[in-house]
Design goal:
heterotrimer; A mainly alpha (about 400); B alpha+beta (about 250); C alpha/beta (about 850); A: about 400 residues; mainly alpha; Formate dehydrogenase/DMSO reductase fold; 16 helices; globular; B: about 250 residues; alpha+beta; Alpha-Beta Plaits; 3-stranded mixed β-sheet; two-stranded antiparallel sheet; 9 strands; about 15% helix
Chain lengths: ~400, ~250, ~850
């Protein structure tokens, strides 16, 4: 059965958008608010880029080459991958409990990837040139080339998958094929993003195959955190407003368990990473000691990861709405810090700059760079609010839907 | 085909930075954007402290990691052994800067570090160039990263491609003291007062650079990374520490 | 296969590659023509070449330090785009220092003055906009002339002064004396040597009779001992120093280098041995070294002389008398010793040296006695050796004596005039004399005894032995001692920034009509009433001789590479034009003189009979080659014998007698190197020195230890010397120079003050903190760099930033240092040499 309120044509989509802007509901307010932020931050960034150019960044050739915009991109790209992985629990691995969040996950995966790519495009010197030089170059040695290939495939498959879901096609062989392929693509994409850093032997803080695994698993964590946050957000942080199935799922233990496990795995990985980093005397690893002195890192580690982990350990707490929401927010924040911390710290050891840099490189993002991060968030929030209102993101396969649920939805 | 390479004798180098300045003016570089730089380190305690330095051009590696990472194939290795950037392909992703172990690549778009107004705004370009220094030279070839660059791309030392590419084929040594080869020699080599720099064909075992590397045990920076720089350093005529634990593969 | 070394081939290939038009005509004049480039004549013959795309090389010489390296200026389409050293110039040898390349920026500096201007705001001050308005050259020149004529009418022409810095030769500094004589002022051509190198030059004058720079034969030297000279930073000729550095450090028998300084610069770091000495005490170390050399019997007997053979008792049974030796603390009968090319050794020993032990010196210098002994032994045994010194030891109140003590080491080791040692230049460039005689144009006013006024700088009156005292002019003017100045003209000098206690000048220039000739904004220009901007050096026609660096004469010509970018005029021509407007016969003289090009052409006529080694024999060949030189070094010493050059055998093989030595080599009263200076012992000077230093008149002639008087206030020595990139005066506004200013400490926007870790800890200063450096005369702010390479009792801040009026980059808002280091340094001069005591200042530091 098709969810009739979803717009079917471009005109309807446009009309829905206008309606949404006038809608006094939560989604409407989110949409208006985030659109305003989007417009302002985009305007500011464009103004800076046109008048000052990339010199408005605090990055430099002698210091940190990749700063907050790249970290923002990585945050969104990995969150997208994580969301696809969570969706795949239902669509690929058959954990039917996860169906109530599958469609939202796929939608969110698309928009976070769009947000990430948008920020990345603004960070590049010549984003449009990329469209022809990368396909004509085919530099198969470049991790960035493969990252581009895999994320493009990922995005296409996500859109196809979402289209099929929208068409209520959850179970056809094509739908399964697209789901399976999408999962493979997302593993390759997130892993390749890890290898983009992991291949850099000259940057020992990033180097190693571990980085690839680290990226995949932390992607899953940020995806899990994102879906928890957004699901609650869709219903005004009120479980009672959720459709029955979703409500049951939200009160259940499966998602918190997955979530807590992913936090635990991340904590273990960080410990392992820091052990080798701090233990080794090798030139280029000095940044680990620098990170250890960085308060933001400790916020990430203790407030953003350890605290949520312990909060969700007991089953009672794990089922608790507030605990889930707080934990998810904290983890999402921690993952944002994590991307920045990972990318920046890997560049703090100067490459033969001697006294010109004097010690480890200091970097804090400029206003323009922050505006780009805000822009990325605003893009995803606006698209999400739009999607939440215009599309039925809580839709599940028919055979899972109880009559009650259908009735409840019809009533809204 | 020549394989151009450079030898820098640290016994002679005075750390004066004439190489850096010659390069800056020859190649229309912005202040602080040093394709060629002299890197100083100090440590130790009074009254026996250390102050040491070495000049650092692009290493023009045999196995350049910057070339491998470029998703646009904008950076490439020439037949003559240089690593160049095609400014018409570069998308300004800066991955090559990340991947260069020697820190020799530059993205023009950054805040001026010298204090005072940005040179780019004082010497504005009316066209695609990132700026228009009044002293810019006539040589320009964007596909080889030569000349005043456009905005939004990465730049680097070309071994003065606009000079060396005019050297007659088969030249073994580009000696600035020889009037016949002077104009084809990289600017940093031409000006080096103590004569600490030599430039020539590494593939020719009879070139002065090859002889110096052999006789004086030339070493390369960060040899363990395997990039195999085509810039060698002479650190004194005595012993020299190996750059790597493994011996290079023997050629048949 | 083509021969890579065949120039014909390479030229053809070059032309193919560049597609340069007119290849057939691209044949240069003389051997200096480079493949593919036309010689300079072509530029002048074809002004259309400006748009031809052809690259033209113009010969010139650099303006950015005293060295005057020959340069090739590359111009294409009327734009100068490159500067390299001239390959066949014996000083630059195709090389340049870092500053040399920045000449292009200097030419196109957007802050340059665009033409003559006059001040409209009568108020003068650091924050006063002068309100300059453009005027025509005619108005500008007439303004000066009117002013000068008025002064002359009032009989006050002495109240006009012309101060100059880096004079280049006959067509700028060379015009000043004549102008003063014709116009009637003793103050035309007040030089800057008292803020430059007078300490070392005077020390040499008093001991070996030569008031000049020395020519050092580094290429053959095996041991170089450097006292307080930035050999690899600022010591001239910097470029050449670095060239020989490459040779010294890699030649068979590598030259051993010892550096004595107060902090570790690149020179000290590159040396084999760095001795960090207490500021101003170098003389004590040198005296102790002399003590060691004598007591250990290491002096060069063939040059210095020796004890006479002992007359043994006739009685064979009587105990044999021992040969006399130098024993610590014991006097020696001067009659026992016979000096050869030296005078007064035993008197010196008795009066001074006998007690100057290394242990004594250790207490004064903080240098361990064993280091002094090792350095002394090495200097006297690893030969040929050179003891070189500059402002480090001499810019102190005891500077001349420090210098004399050090220079005496060169005599003791027999390094004077030997191969691998040092000598003085005895020959000059054979410029033709001008036919025009200024004496014929002096009117009664100029000839009148009323014109014999004392100079405003006090030289000859207050400073009896000095050659200049530029740093005192402001002070004397303010006091009206001996009179007030009315008009001051400045050429390539700006004591308002560069003089010690420079801030005093801001007051002094208030009521003086100031004329500046700088092409660029500067602190001095801010206080000027009239700007008559000079051409920059790439736009200028000018000639110069080098200083006596190589021991043989070398002269260069600057040929304009481009037409002046702005409405500017070469200073020499400006002065001639002013002269043409002075009343009376003066104007006739200058009309006859015409212009600087006319002078140059007349002077170059002397080359016709004396062509240079490179064949330069007239104006055109001079411009094509850029340099005239004759590499013959007329005299050398070997094993205590002086020889003249023999053209036949091409060697120094004709022995010369003592009279010739006195005439050419040691121009002292004795014709020898004097450890007991006859010059200083002259009554007029001995009395003066006694007055100033309290030294007994019979001792004034000996190189001796007198303690330096530290000036200013505070517990730390404040040393501010130059960096390699500090172009003469203008690096502060060159963004490229700023970005690499202090590589040793990472100074790329600011320069850092070097503070020893121990001192920093005591003062609670952390790396990067902004520090206030102050003394009773003023203060300056700079970021701190904790550096183990500076003495704990010393802070070092490079003389670089602080220009508050030099241009947009110099006065960048973000930069911490806002004023000159000289505000911290009290205006004290060595009473003998007159050299400003730049390094005797004390300061205190605190976190700002």
């Amino acid at each position: 059965m098709k969810y009739k309120s979803e717009p079917q044509t471009l005109g309807e989509l446009l009309a829905a958008t206008i309606t949404l802007a006038k809608d006094p509901s939560a989604a409407g307010r989110w949409f208006i608010g985030s659109m305003a932020v989007l417009v302002i931050s985009f305007g500011f960034v464009m103004f800076q880029l046109i008048t000052v150019g990339h010199a408005s960044f605090n990055t430099s050739s002698d210091g940190v080459n990749w700063g907050l915009p790249i970290a923002t991109y990585v945050f969104f790209a990995l969150t997208s991958s994580g969301l696809t992985m969570i969706a795949s629990l239902a669509t690929v691995f058959g954990f039917k409990q996860f169906y109530p969040i599958a469609k939202r996950c796929i939608f969110l995966a698309i928009i976070t990837l769009v947000a990430g790519f948008s920020v990345l495009a603004l960070e590049l010197g010549h984003p449009f040139r990329m469209l022809w030089v990368v396909p004509t170059g085919v530099q198969v040695m470049s991790p960035m080339f493969w990252m581009g290939v895999f994320y493009t495939i990922d995005l296409v498959l996500l859109i196809v998958k979402f289209y099929l879901m929208w068409k209520e096609d959850w179970d056809s062989p094509l739908s399964h094929l697209v789901g399976n392929a999408g999962f493979v693509a997302v593993i390759l994409a997130s892993g390749m993003l890890g290898l983009l850093f992991g291949s850099m032997v000259m940057r020992p803080m990033w180097f190693g195959s571990f980085t690839s695994i680290y990226y995949m698993l932390t992607a899953a964590l940020s995806g899990a955190a994102a879906i928890v946050v957004t699901t609650y957000m869709a219903y005004d942080f009120d479980r009672e407003k959720m459709p029955a199935q979703l409500k049951a799922f939200a009160s259940g233990i499966e998602l918190p368990r997955v979530f807590t496990t992913l936090i635990g795995i991340t904590l273990v990985m960080m410990l392992a990473r820091f052990w080798t980093g701090l233990w080794s005397n090798m030139d280029g690893l000095e940044g680990f000691a620098g990170l250890f002195r960085d308060p933001l890192f400790h916020v990430e580690m203790w407030v953003g990861l350890a605290l949520p982990f312990f909060m969700l350990l007991s089953e009672k707490a794990a089922r608790n709405k507030n605990a889930q929401i707080i934990a998810a927010f904290l983890v999402l924040g921690a993952m944002f810090i994590n991307r920045l911390e990972f990318i920046v710290s890997g560049q703090t050891v100067p490459m033969f700059k001697g006294n010109w840099t004097n010690s480890l490189i200091a970097y804090s993002p400029s206003v323009t760079e922050w505006a780009m991060a805000v822009l990325g968030i605003a893009i995803s929030l606006a698209l999400y609010a739009f999607g939440e209102k215009v599309l039925d993101l809580s839709a599940t396969p028919d055979h899972l839907e109880s009559t009650e649920a259908t009735a409840a939805r019809a009533a809204t | 085909m020549a394989k151009w390479g450079m030898v820098i004798d640290l016994e002679k180098c005075t750390g004066c930075q004439a190489c850096t300045m010659a390069c800056s003016m020859e190649n229309g570089r912005l202040p602080g954007e040093h394709w060629q730089d002299v890197i100083f380190y100090n440590e130790g305690e009074y009254p026996s402290p250390q102050l040491k330095w070495f000049p650092r051009p692009c290493m023009h590696c045999e196995n350049p990691s910057c070339v491998a990472v470029c998703p646009a194939r904008a950076t490439y290795k020439t037949e003559e052994g240089q690593v160049l950037v095609d400014w018409e392909r570069c998308i300004g992703c800066k991955y090559c800067m990340i991947a260069c172990p020697y820190g020799v690549r530059f993205y023009t778009e950054e805040k001026p570090r010298y204090g005072g107004p940005d040179m780019k705004s004082v010497f504005k370009s009316g066209d695609a160039h990132s700026w228009n220094p009044p002293w810019k030279g006539p040589a320009e070839n964007w596909t080889r990263g030569v000349g005043t660059q456009p905005a939004g791309v990465v730049s680097k030392c070309t071994f003065c491609d606009h000079r060396i590419s005019k050297a007659p084929k088969g030249t073994a040594d580009l000696d600035p003291q020889n009037p016949a080869t002077r104009e084809f020699t990289p600017a940093c080599v031409v000006t080096c007062a103590p004569g600490a720099r030599m430039f020539g064909d590494l593939s020719n075992p009879n070139s002065e650079v090859s002889k110096a590397i052999g006789n004086k045990n030339g070493v390369r920076l960060l040899d363990h990374l395997g990039n195999k720089p085509q810039v060698y350093y002479l650190t004194g005529e005595g012993g020299s520490v190996p750059g790597n634990r493994v011996l290079p593969t023997k050629k048949a | 296969m083509s021969n890579p070394l065949n120039p014909t081939v390479s030229r053809r290939r070059f032309l193919q590659a560049t597609g340069a038009a007119g290849a057939a005509t691209a044949v240069g004049v003389g051997t200096g023509a480079l493949p593919g480039f036309t010689a300079i004549e072509k530029v002048h013959a074809q002004p259309a070449a400006e748009k031809s795309g052809e690259t033209v090389i113009t010969k010139s010489f650099c303006h950015q330090c005293p060295a005057r390296c020959g340069i090739d200026v590359y111009t294409t389409n009327g734009r100068v785009h490159s500067i390299f050293g001239t390959l066949d110039n014996p000083l630059s040898n195709g090389k340049l220092c870092p500053k040399g390349h920045l000449g292009t920026f200097l030419l196109y500096d957007p802050d340059r003055f665009k033409g003559p201007m006059k001040r409209t705001n009568p108020k003068k001050g650091r924050n006063e906009d002068p309100g300059f308005v453009p005027i025509s050259w005619d108005e500008a020149l007439q303004t000066v002339a009117d002013r000068l004529n008025t002064l002359r009418d009032k009989g006050e022409s002495h109240r006009f002064g012309l101060l100059f810095g880096r004079g280049w030769g006959a067509v700028d500094a060379g015009l000043l004396g004549t102008f003063g004589k014709l116009y009637g002022t003793p103050n035309s051509g007040l030089g800057h040597s008292s803020t430059c190198a007078d300490g070392s030059k005077k020390a040499k004058l008093y001991t070996d009779g030569n008031y000049d720079y020395s020519s050092y034969d580094y290429a053959h030297c095996n041991n170089l001992l450097i006292f307080g000279a930035g050999f690899l930073e600022a010591f001239r000729p910097y470029n050449y120093n670095m060239q020989v550095w490459g040779q010294m450090r890699t030649k068979a028998a590598k030259t051993k280098v010892t550096v004595v300084d107060v902090h570790m610069s690149t020179t000290g770091a590159a040396a084999d041995r760095l001795i960090m000495i207490k500021p101003g005490t170098d003389g004590a170390m040198a005296l102790a070294m002399a003590h060691v050399i004598l007591t250990e019997g290491l002096w060069d007997r063939k040059f210095v002389g020796d004890f006479k053979p002992v007359v043994q008792p006739k009685d064979p049974a009587a105990a044999r008398l021992p040969s006399p030796t130098f024993e610590t603390g014991k006097e020696i009968d001067p009659a026992l010793f016979e000096g050869k090319w030296t005078h007064g050794l035993i008197e010196w020993w008795n009066a001074e040296l006998k007690d100057r032990t290394p242990e004594w010196a250790e207490k004064i210098t903080t240098v361990p006695a064993r280091e002094i002994i090792a350095t002394a032994r090495e200097l006297a045994t690893v030969k040929p050796s050179i003891a070189l010194f500059e402002r480090g030891p001499t810019a102190h109140t005891n500077g001349v004596y420090n210098g004399m003590a050090i220079h005496s080491l060169n005599a003791l080791t027999g390094s004077l005039w030997v191969e691998g040692g040092m000598l003085n230049q005895t020959t000059k460039t054979p410029w033709a004399k001008l036919s025009l005689k200024y004496e014929d144009y002096m009117d009664d006013y100029a000839k009148s005894d009323d014109r014999k006024k004392p100079k405003i700088d006090g030289v000859g009156t207050k400073y009896k032995m000095a050659s200049a005292q530029i740093q005192r002019i402001g002070e004397y003017h303010l006091k009206g001692d001996p009179y007030k100045m009315d008009t001051l003209m400045f050429y390539l000098t700006a004591p308002i920034f560069s003089s010690p206690e420079n801030n005093g000048w801001e007051k002094a220039l208030q009521d003086i009509f100031v004329i500046d000739t700088t092409p660029y904004p500067s602190e001095n220009a801010m206080f000027s009433d009239l700007i008559l901007p000079d051409n920059t050096y790439l736009e200028r026609l000018q000639i110069a001789d080098t200083y006596s660096f190589q021991g043989y004469p070398m002269s260069m010509i600057r040929t304009p590479a481009v037409k002046p970018v702005h409405d500017t005029k070469t200073f020499g021509d400006t002065l001639i034009e002013i002269g043409k407007r002075i009343k009376g016969p003066t104007s006739e003289y200058y009309k006859q003189l015409g212009n600087t090009e006319n002078i140059i052409k007349q002077m170059v006529a002397g080359f016709a009979e004396n062509p240079g080694d490179n064949g330069v024999n007239d104006y055109e060949s001079f411009k094509a080659k850029g340099v005239w030189f004759n590499k013959t070094v007329p005299y050398r010493q070997k094993d205590g014998v002086f020889y003249a050059w023999d053209k036949e055998s091409k060697s120094h093989s004709i022995p010369i007698d003592a009279a010739k030595v006195k005439e050419k080599i040691f121009k002292t009263p004795t014709g020898k190197f004097e450890f007991k200076s006859g010059y200083m012992e002259q009554e007029k000077y001995a009395h003066y020195i006694h007055d100033k230093h309290g030294i007994a008149e019979d001792r004034v002639g000996f190189p001796q230890w007198i303690a330096p008087k530290y000036s200013g206030t505070g517990d730390l020595h404040f040393i501010a010397s130059k960096l390699p990139i500090a172009a003469e005066g203008r690096a502060g506004n060159l963004a490229h120079a700023i970005a690499v200013a202090q590589p040793t400490q990472g100074g790329k926007r600011d320069v850092f003050v070097e503070i020893n870790p121990e001192t920093a800890a005591k003062k609670g200063i952390k790396d990067g903190d902004v520090v206030l450096i102050k003394s009773k005369t003023g203060s300056v702010k700079a970021p701190a760099r904790i550096y183990a390479g500076v003495r704990p009792d010393t802070v070092f801040l490079p003389y670089f930033h602080g220009h508050w009026a030099q241009g947009r980059w110099a006065k960048a808002e973000e930069r911490i240092q806002k004023n000159s280091v000289n505000e911290v340094i009290e205006n004290v001069s060595d009473p003998i040499s007159g050299l400003a005591c730049y390094y005797s200042g004390m300061c205190s530091i605190e976190k700002a």
